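Exercise 3.2. Students should predict the tertiary structure of the chain below and write it as C-alpha cells, then compare their answer with the key that follows.

Predict this chain's 3D structure.
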Amino acid sequence: MTEQKYEIPEKDEMRDDIGQRSLRGEMYTDLVSLLKVLNQYEEPIPFEYALYRAYHDYDYSLSPDADDYSAVKDKHKTRLDKAGRWDEEVVGDVVGRIPTAEVWVEYVSSELGYETVTEQNLNEVQKACVRIGDERKDEYYKACGREFQERILEDADSILDDSGTIGEFIDEVLGDFARLAAEEFPSRVNAGSQGGKSSAGSANEELARRLLLAAGLTEGESEETVRNFTTETEDDSDVIVFGNDDQTMYVEVKSTSIRERVRRALMGEGNYWSLFGFFGNAEKVRSEVLEGNLQGEPWSEQSAVAYVPPEVVSKVEDIDEKEDDGNEVYKLENEDGLLYLRANNVFAQDMVQFTQTGELTDIDPGHEDQYI
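Answer key:
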C-alpha cells in the first residue's frame, strides 16, 4: 500500500475537469473505482489488472470475465481516457496500452513541462512520444510480472496448507507463476505491440492539429461552422486547411519512416497537397523528392510542399553538395516559385498564411537553422 495519490473528486468537479456537459452516475462510479485501485500501488499496473482489481475490489461496472471481452476492453479504455483527461498522471500509472492521441500527447507534453505543442518544441515532443512509448512497453512487461506474482500470492495460505514442505510450496508457486504467464502474457505482448503501431500515426496527426490550434487557427467538423481546418476527412488526407477563397490544402501526416506513397489524388486548380512528417533519413527524403518509389511518383510532382524535421532539411543540403547529379533539392522550388522542402516547424505559420491569402509564406533556404 502507498500514500493516496489521487484525491477523489466530487462528481460535478470531475465532470468539469474532464470537459463534459454531463457525467452519468455509473461512469462516475467507474472512474472513482479506477482511482481507488491506482491509489493502492506505487508502481504502474497493467491495463488488464486495473480492470481486474476495479471489478473485484470496488464497484466497477465492467467484468473481466464477460463473454464479449473485446467490447469490455474498449469500454475500459474509454474510462481510462476520461480519467487521463481528469489527471494526466493516470496515463503513467496504467501501462499496456496507449491512450487516445489527444490524451497521449497531453501526457507527453506535460512530462516535458510544456503546456502545448509549438513550432519550437514540436520535434522534441514527437520524439518523446516515441521514446516514452517504447519505455512503457518495457514497464508493461515488468508490471505484468508483478501482477502475476501478486495474484498467485493471494492464494499463498491455501497453497501452503496443501503443500507438505516449504520446497513443495515454492515449487507450486513457481509452477503457478509459469502457468499464468504462459496463458496470459503472449496475448498481452501482441496486443501491446499492435496498439503501439496503430497509435503512432494518430499521435503525429494530433501533433499537427495542436500546432495549428496553437497558431490561432480554428477547427471545425462541418461547413456550417466557422473553421480554418478540419481533421474530419473522407479522402486520403489527414488534415484539410481552407484558403481565403476556394483554395484547399490537403495534408498527409507521416511518421519517421518512408514506406507509403505520399498522396493518392491529383492536384487541381485551387487544390494543393502537402506532406507533413517526421522522417529521419535525409538520403531517403532527397531520393523521394527526386525519384519517388515503386508506390508513387516523386514527391515534388505530387505535392506543393513537404515539411520534414529541420535537421533533415540541413542534411539534404550537405548531400546536395556531395552528390554530383546536378540536383539541388535543398533549394528546389515548387510551381509557384516557392521553396519546396521546409522544416516542419513552419507548417503552422504557412497554414495561417494560406488561410489568409491562399498562398504559402515565401521563405528562404536556411530558415531551418533557428530550429536546430
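Discussion points: The longest helix spans residues 166-214. The two ends are 46 Å apart (CA to CA).
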